[in-house]
Design a protein that fits this description.
Elements lengths: L1 H17 L7 H22 L5 H18 L2 H15 L3 H22 L2
Helix pairs in contact: 1-2, 1-3, 2-5, 3-4, 4-5
Length: 114
Amino acid sequence: MRRILAFSLALSLVVLSTAALQADDEEACQALDNLSTALDEMATGVHNDELSPEDVQEDVDALKDMAREIQDGKLTAMVNKIAAMLNSRNQEGFVKSVDDLVDYIDSEVEENCQ
């Protein structure tokens, strides 16, 4: 699972940092969909205590790097909230924050990838 998220983050960063999401851009849409799925799996893994804190921290750090590169204020705020929940060891808040990010990504996909 860990490798899936890291790969999805790397692919999303490459796709999204080079250009804004264009309507029907298949590669970007697929990268966002993969990222959404990987984040959902991460939230489930945290909820079920299946992931090590170190792996989750690495994933959150990668998310922060991605958000910084993309320079989307809403995305950055959501990722910062995820990091804050992780740092405070608030498992329920962490899962909720990741779910909110998944919803945001899914709405972008729905709006731009139909």
